[in-house]
Design brief:
Helices cover 37% and strands 16% of the residues. It is an alpha/beta fold. The chain has an 8-stranded parallel beta barrel with strand order 1-2-3-4-5-6-7-10, surrounded by 6 helices. Strands 8-9 form a two-stranded antiparallel sheet. The longest helix is centred in the middle third of the chain and has 22 residues.
Amino acid sequence: MAESLGRRQFIRTTSAACVTTALGMKGLAAAPLQASTGEHRGKIYKSVKFGMVRGKLSIQQKFELLKELGYDGVELNSPGGCNKKQALAASKAVGLPIHGVVDSIHWGTRLSDPRPEVREKGRAGLETAIRDTHLVGGTAVLLVPGRVANKEKENQEQVWERSIEQISKVLPLCSRLGIHILIENVWNGFCYVHGGPDNQTADKLAEYLDAMNSPWVGAYFDIGNHQRYGKPAGWIRTLGRRIVKLDVKDWGKKNGFCKIGDGDVDWADVRKALKEIGFSGWATAEVGGGGKERLKEIAERMDRALGL
């Protein structure tokens, strides 16, 4: 995710074709993915963000389409987003689980904001997301804990301390409802150096997760987000069992965020790393969505990239 973009904006502006980066870099796509190895079939469950499903369809019709295309589940947004009771009814009718939600306000209403009242509002939004996840039968909330937006008011240390303070307040609710808070690695300048070298590691992120010392906090590892700053397979090995869920996208030096398999991610090494850490769980595409043909293509690319 680009530093200047929120999650919804990213999904809206990422087209079905490979997109140009903010720097305007263009180039030839990488070699296409090989056929699926099948090594993670039955261990990794394929999903999309609900907002990626386009077209004039009802909630249930969207669930039916995803089921038809071979997806195992879907992820919603909260606060806001589609009607959760209607989504739950569709999920039960179709037999397609809702595995969790994305905190939809974490980018603009940050837990790291210098204003206490904004941090409290962000925490309240996180609580809503936790309750909505429980309502629809999900297991986790994806959270971006803050952003190093102004180094005098939101630097590394401040994002660290402020976000942990707010997250700690909702952990009793997580424990009571059985919902995890999963921290995603994004272009937010936190736990890595934005604009820094391409050999950065996940050590700082692992330290941050461990600092909360809670079984209800883990990693929602986005495979493509930090290709620019480090090797995804290396980050997977470092984070290890802290990883509970995966976001799936690709990024390349020549073509920026692009179709899964057309960037620089070493998917063979990613599959190997996931096997080494014994990963089993949800993998959710976060790329430009569309109608049936586009969603079918995404499913096929996920199969080949992840060995499904």
